[in-house]
From TrEMBL:
Record keyword Transferase present: yes
Organism of provenance: Peribacillus deserti
Superkingdom as given in the UniProt entry: Bacteria
Classification via Pfam families: Methyltransf_25 (PF13649)
Entry's Gene Ontology BP terms: methylation
Name listed for the protein in its UniProt record: SAM-dependent methyltransferase
GO molecular function, one term: methyltransferase activity
Coiled coil region boundaries: none
Length: 151
């Protein structure tokens, strides 16, 4: 398992969690767009909070990275801000990002927007995350979660 983040603090946090559970994880402190990934390397790619911080003009690079990384029939899961959510989710258009010069802390998405962006993937499920109050499981209803399959 590989875990990628551009934040050194996030990598340190992940390493501590992996150590607590004896999980074997290869941590990579790097920008995802600078990764050197072999084609078809992964059965599953999970994005937990990256996509909503990517400006619209980088989406094609993001999609190409996913398509390169995944094996045919592989899965892509995502957790992202819901539009207008309490945790974030700017209610601005893609054009507003450039007009305002800001992502406003992270873009908010709707089910329809995720379907449109990931149109080359089969939708398994898109829904609000369930609200879970358990110290071992994360769940906040102001986030969208989705599962796709690479065709």
């Amino acid at each position: 398992m590989d875990a990628v983040d551009s934040s050194k603090e996030a990598i340190k946090w992940g390493m501590a969690r992996a150590k607590e559970t004896n999980a074997e994880v290869n941590f990579i402190n790097k920008n995802i767009f600078l990764l050197d990934i072999d084609e078809g390397s992964y059965d599953l790619v999970y994005d937990s909070g990256c996509f909503h911080h990517i400006p619209p003009h980088r989406r094609m690079s993001y999609l190409n990275l996913l398509k390169k990384a995944l094996k045919p029939g592989g899965f892509f899961a995502i957790t992202c801000f819901i539009r207008g959510g309490e945790l974030g989710g700017a209610e601005i258009t893609d054009w507003d990002v450039y007009r305002l010069g800001s992502l406003r802390g992270g873009l908010g998405f709707t089910e329809a927007k995720l379907r449109a962006i990931f149109k080359d993937f089969e939708v398994i499920e898109i829904r609000r995350m369930k609200d879970i109050n358990d110290e071992n499981i994360f769940g906040k209803p102001d986030l969208l979660t989705a599962l796709f399959r690479y065709k």
